[in-house]
Write a structure and sequence with these properties.
The chain is of the alpha+beta class. It has two domains: about 300 residues, DD-peptidase/beta-lactamase superfamily (Beta-lactamase), CATH 3.40.710; about 80 residues, Lipocalin (Beta Barrel), CATH 2.40.128. It is built from 13 helices and 21 strands. An eight-stranded antiparallel β-barrel has the order 14-15-16-17-18-19-20-21. A seven-stranded antiparallel beta sheet has the order 6-5-4-12-11-10-9, sandwiched between helices. A two-stranded antiparallel sheet has the order 1-3. Helix 2 packs across helix 12, helix 4 packs across helix 7 and helix 4 crosses helix 8. The longest helix is centred in the N-terminal third of the chain and has 30 residues. The N terminus is likely disordered.
Length: about 500
């Protein structure tokens, strides 16, 4: 956000094969290894070459027409962007084909990032948590289209004028059409009083209360608050802690035994957990945040573990055979709804997945419906820009659809035309800023940006940040600029 925020192929033989070979002639063995060794070596070399091309062909996501786009090495790019570490896993034909880690898990401890390092998955917790809700639907304990208050025992969602005709349902929670408040959660620091799930929902933590603010089903609005209601539905129904039921019914069956929803993170994991960092490189207070909103944001995992979710969904969807969920459930789960959301994951005609953003961590998961591939990228920084660059390189190398750079035009405007945008503005939740004209470009000057932010023009009233492509849409009346919108935040012009 602009305001900143060995491979190795293991070749083995069965015991019977070893017994047979033990009694074979040395000539047979020599011929066997003469024929197979070059083939295996070539396969390994091909894969290493592919990984090397990915590592050395990172390009910025924002690409300006007519301008050369620089190419980066992954380790160089991490240093450029001040991102401590990155971890990635790639799946081909239902198996992890390769995994790599780069940089540092903890700079002060000089501890490198490895493929075994645990990171917070952020909102990718949601589609994983949704699997348990779907299992309870299949077991007849939940219904996707029944009032959630029928299943809540320790707390009830207050009814209001918006729920008179339509009720909040599990379906609406899963695809973010329930009309609920609270987009996301900032987490808690070590030493903070951690609220219960009910207290979070009633606004007694560090976020507003979760309430219905528009008629359910009317439109789409992302709500981590809704997934926190789902979390309470699960624990009220099962009379079991959320981490325990997720471990028993979802994580362990999906070969994610080294992952956990436990928050605070238990001591036994601390030595292999990555420290989270702000965009400016400073450590997150207490090394990582704590999320009692576990279904929405609390999953600790690795890319190699997290990608098991994609493997399982792909297997069920493509084979049309039941797995951790019934095929009918997965089929319904992957139908694109409003704003490209299914019943858990984001989904399109060709892909499914989700992004994640916790304090000090960013993550991305993609799985393809028509290709036997999936990828997970995770970093221990608030700056996740390198993830898209890695994904672009992966998509190019494997010729995978759906991941494209953000290509923009840079229209040259006369100073006289740009002058009307200059002046002082007040941006909600952020504060005051000023737009100044300098050498043919508008610049944002504010206390909440580290350095003046250059804006490029796409058209009259349409600009974007040259650094990351974030759009600024200006309101113009009678050829006078009255304000603008950026990342859903409104700014109004201040009279001077």
């Amino acid at each position: 956000m602009i305001f900143n925020h060995l491979y190795f192929r293991v070749t083995y033989y069965s015991q019977s094969s070893l017994t047979f070979m033990k009694h074979s002639s040395s000539f047979f063995l020599a011929v066997l290894f003469f024929l197979t060794a070059p083939l295996l070596g070539q396969t390994n070399a091909d894969l290493e070459a592919r990984i090397s091309r990915i590592e050395n062909n990172l390009m910025q996501n924002l690409q300006i027409e007519g301008e050369e786009t620089p190419v980066y090495n992954i380790n160089e790019r991490l240093k450029q962007l001040n991102i401590p570490g990155l971890s990635i896993a790639f799946v081909s034909n239902g198996k992890v084909e390769w995994a790599r880690a780069y940089g540092m898990a903890d700079r002060n401890e000089n501890r490198p990032m490895t493929t075994e390092t645990m990171l917070l998955a952020g909102s990718i917790s949601k589609p994983v948590a949704a699997l348990r809700a779907h299992q309870l639907v299949e077991a007849g304990k939940f219904d996707l289209d029944v009032n959630v208050n029928n299943y809540l025992k320790s707390w009830k969602l207050p009814e209001n004028e918006f729920t008179e005709k339509k009720k909040v349902t599990l379906r609406g929670i899963l695809n973010h059409t329930a009309g609920l408040t609270v987009w996301g959660f900032p987490g808690y620091d070590k030493g903070d009083k951690i609220p219960t799930t009910a207290e979070v929902l009633d606004g007694k933590g560090n976020t507003d209360s979760v309430r219905v603010y528009k008629e359910p089903g009317e439109s789409w609005m992302y709500s981590g608050g809704g997934y926190t209601i789902m979390q309470l539905m699960v624990t009220d129904t099962e009379q079991m802690s959320f981490p325990e039921t997720m471990q028993r019914h979802v994580l362990d069956p999906m070969n994610m035994q080294k992952s956990t929803f436990e928050n605070p993170l238990p001591d036994k994991y601390h030595s292999i957990a990555a420290t989270g960092y702000r965009g400016n490189g400073t450590e997150v207070e207490g090394k990582w945040p704590i999320y009692p909103e576990m279904a929405a944001a609390g999953l600790w995992t690795t890319p190699t573990q997290l990608i098991q979710y994609a493997i399982e969904v792909q297997k069920i969807n493509n084979s049309k055979k039941d797995g951790i969920l019934k095929y009918s459930s997965v089929k319904e789960m992957l139908i694109p709804g409003m704003n490209g959301h299914g019943l858990g994951p984001q989904t399109t005609e060709h892909m499914f997945g989700h992004g994640g953003a916790d304090e000090g961590f960013r993550a991305q998961l993609f799985g393809w419906k028509e290709h036997p591939h999936a990828v997970v990228v995770m970093v221990n920084s608030d700056n996740g820009s390198i993830m898209q660059e890695v994904l672009l390189a992966v998509a190019k190398e494997y010729n995978l659809p759906g991941i494209e750079p953000d290509k923009r035009k840079n229209i040259k405007m006369a100073d006289a035309d740009l002058q009307k945008y200059t002046g002082k503005y007040k941006l909600e939740r952020m504060g005051n800023l000023e737009l100044k004209l300098d050498k043919g470009h508008l610049y944002v000057h504010a206390g909440f940006v580290q350095e003046p932010l250059q804006l490029n023009a796409e058209g009259n009233g349409l600009f974007y940040a040259a650094k990351d492509g974030v759009r600024f849409t200006f309101d113009i009346k009678d050829d006078k600029v009255t304000g603008f919108e950026v990342q859903r935040l409104k700014a109004v012009r201040v009279k001077e």
